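Feature request, filed as a ticket because there's no other form

It would be nice if the structure record came with a short human-readable summary line next to the tokens. Right now we just get the raw output. Example of a typical job, pasted below so the devs can see what we mean:
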Amino acid sequence: MMQDADMPDVQHSPALLLRDFTGYLRLERAMSPNTIEAYGRDVTHLLTWLAFKSLRPEECQRSDIEQFMADIHDLGLTGRSQARLFAGIRQFFRFLRLEGRMNHDPMELIDAPRRGMHLPDVLSLEEIDAMIDAIDMSKPEGQRNRAIIETLYGSGLRVSELLALSLDRVFLEEQYLIVEGKGSKQRLVPLSPVAVVHIEAWLADRELLSIQSRDAHLLFLNRRGAGLTRQMIFHIIRTLAALAGIRKTVSPHTLRHSFATHLLEGGANLRAIQEMLGHESLSTTELYVHLDRTRLRAELLAHHPLFREGV
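Raw output as currently delivered:
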């Protein structure tokens, strides 16, 4: 029976493809439940990425896979995780060929990522908690430093973006920031509930400072009421990492990579992560802010540890 040209191709829907693929891994490849779950999550990222490009998996070419892997690399995923993701996607295209759904393998001439390749370290949630626990809240700068850590990790900001955060771009009640990134491009980034609590507490401390007029618009200031420097942020992060007993090379960018990696490995939408990281510009009109704040917060509520209900 021929399918009506106007009817959707149900058998090739992403959900059914994923179901069939995980069934193949379980029944024919006899893989462990953990591996099946990981490969299914990896293929979900690929399918989401392809959908954004208006491509079906069967249409995928080598150049598409190379671009996808480049986007994954840009998010700071560890070499080990990239290698596993590559393996999962390779299994997926083998499955499609075995099923007769495509007659070429876009992975055939692509080298797998090297596990030993240098990439920024990623912190576990336990390591981030240990850094937070290392903050001496009895010191005048304690509350500020807590707010800084929560903002860097909870929103994935670059250090330059953190330093330039303006009070009029911080919307605590609505729980989002408007950030100016590279090339003066603006984007909207949700704030975690715990970040909001600690920013509010920092703002109370900030009121007690003798603030320098040129920096009065900035959210984060030093004890002299002036803007912070990159060197100071690096010093804060590295000192806390050392106090927490973390032996990895830790910088503000480590928290940004951890933000992206934890979301990606938790199953968040790749496109939403890219938007939150500022890889593409976003409009900041009233309507777009409202719509995107709802959608991006949904990704964080579902996949980021700091946005879990009850935190």
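Something like this underneath would help us a lot:
The radius of gyration is 22 Å.
DSSP finds twelve helices and three strands in the chain.
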